[in-house]
Specification:
Blueprint: H1 2-20, H2 27-33, H3 36-44, H4 54-85, E1 106-110, H5 113-122, E2 129-132, E3 138-144, H6 151-172, E4 174-180, E5 185-187, E6 193-204, E7 210-221, E8 227-233, E9 238-240, E10 243-260, E11 263-271, E12 275-278, E13 281-292, E14 295-298, E15 301-304, E16 313-320, E17 323-331, E18 336-338, E19 341-358, H7 362-381, E20 385-391, E21 401-406, H8 411-424
Helix pairs in contact: 1-4, 2-3, 4-6, 6-7
């Protein structure tokens, strides 16, 4: 247990560092954020990619082995306790009087066997068995909550499955990103799946703040022709073909129209950050760098005053053979002339960015979570309760029965339940 606690402390500190230190940056970036010496230590210790560093994986493996071996060596002990809990208690006499949880079992007196059995049933004992004490007296006994003895064991097993599911998932998972406008179709990485964005909606509240982003998707498997449809929202992903589709983010896109000598050459939608190659002159490239719905020119450059499309401005860059020809903000209906070509921007609209993840070990992690919850339920809501009733000796007052019960983890709740059941009789 001490070894496991030590490993958990190291993992907790490591996760804290992984959250505090930006992951995946370069030496220059860390040197700028902290100092050159600190940047050297970050890279030397692998803190730039904590969760995939060899030492983090080794610690996680040792924790898994620790949990596994702890569970294995505890099985015989739990089995013995489980079997012993169902047998007639050896201390059937117990202390006389009212009893105390610290000193021994709680005690109540009953007039006959029927009352004793009724009291036992009030305490949740369903299966009442009969035996004989060492003095030859009749003893009724029963138990509930024996499954609670397995609570900690099951909880540890669930944590082990969670670690395995998460660790293997991080190693084996596949992630892809697609983005586009309604009607666009995109291939999912190097797979045989094609995603079509059927619709994309931005729902607003009464104060014009965003309430939800919603994308309707159709996924087709080119290899089999199978088709599935789904809707993904923020915090409500869609699941199709064993993949999870997350509504990740959104941005602006616009149409770029290129005319040559007054004749339409091409007209395509381009997302901010993307570019368009002129059809008959691929060395000439027009990039839509950014879009401003309500553009205002300031000393710091173009900015937008609101998210409403009031005074749209398109920040563009023009490249020819890899060299920048120009950069500026083009307003709605303004034209950009490059030799015999005329460029205009139009129809701004939001595009959606969908993150796609395939993790074959998600079911294992889910099973681990459910097993952990089961273990916690058994440990906290199924405390072991033993109740037994013994015939009185003549020196104890003649006929009658003495009912005793104990619940080591029940505490004051069991005392109240025992007293309430005795008072009813």
């Amino acid at each position: 247990m001490g070894f496991a606690i030590g490993l958990l402390i190291i993992l907790a500190v490591s996760c804290a560092l992984g959250s505090f230190i930006p992951q995946g940056e370069t030496y220059a970036a860390y040197a700028e954020m902290y100092s050159e010496r600190t940047a050297g230590w970050i890279l030397a210790l692998g803190l730039e990619d904590v969760y995939h560093s060899p030492w983090f994986i080794v610690i996680a493996v040792f924790l898994c082995l620790n949990l596994l071996l702890c569970n294995l060596v505890r099985i015989p002990q739990i089995l013995r306790r489980y079997r012993a809990a169902g047998e007639m208690p050896e201390d059937t006499a117990g202390p006389s009087g009212e009893g105390d949880q610290a000193a021994g079992p709680l005690t109540a007196a009953c007039g006959d066997r029927a009352e004793a059995e009724s009291l036992m049933k009030h305490l949740g004992i369903r299966a009442i068995r009969e035996g004989r004490t060492a003095e030859g007296r009749t003893c009724l006994y029963g138990v509930r909550g024996r499954a609670g003895l397995w609570g900690a064991w099951v909880c540890h097993l669930g944590v082990l499955l969670l670690i395995l599911g998460f660790g293997l998932g991080q190693t084996m998972k596949q992630e892809y990103t697609v983005y586009g406008l309604p009607g666009d179709s995109r291939q999912v990485g190097d797979t045989s799946y094609i995603v079509t964005i059927e619709d994309f909606r931005v729902d607003l509240r009464e104060d014009d703040t965003v309430e939800q982003y919603t994308a309707d998707l159709t996924v087709r498997d080119v290899s089999t022709g199978a088709v599935q449809q789904g809707t993904t929202q923020v915090n409500a992903p869609a699941r199709m073909f064993g993949m999870t589709f997350y509504q990740n983010s959104t941005g602006w896109a616009a149409g770029i129209r290129v005319d040559k000598n007054g004749q339409l050459l091409q007209d395509e939608n381009v997302c901010a950050g993307d570019y368009l190659e002129v059809a008959d002159k691929p060395d000439l490239v027009i990039m839509l760098t950014a879009f401003y719905p309500d553009v205002r020119m300031t000393d710091q450059g173009p900015m937008t005053a609101s998210s409403d499309i009031v005074n749209p401005g398109y920040l563009y860059m023009v490249y020819y053979q890899g060299q920048v020809l120009g950069m500026n903000v083009l307003m709605q209906d303004e034209e950009l002339t490059i030799d015999e070509y005329t460029v205009t921007f139009h129809d701004p609209q939001n595009y959606t960015l969908i993150q796609i993840r395939r993790d074959p070990f998600t079911p294992l992690a889910l099973a681990g979570g459910l097993v952990t919850l089961l273990g916690l339920f058994l440990a906290f809501y199924c405390p072991l309760t033993q109740v037994w009733a013994v015939e009185k000796r003549e020196e104890e007052g003649g006929k009658g029965w003495t009912v005793r019960g104990r619940c080591p983890k029940g505490g004051i709740l069991f005392r109240e339940r025992f007293k309430e059941a005795a008072d009813k009789l």
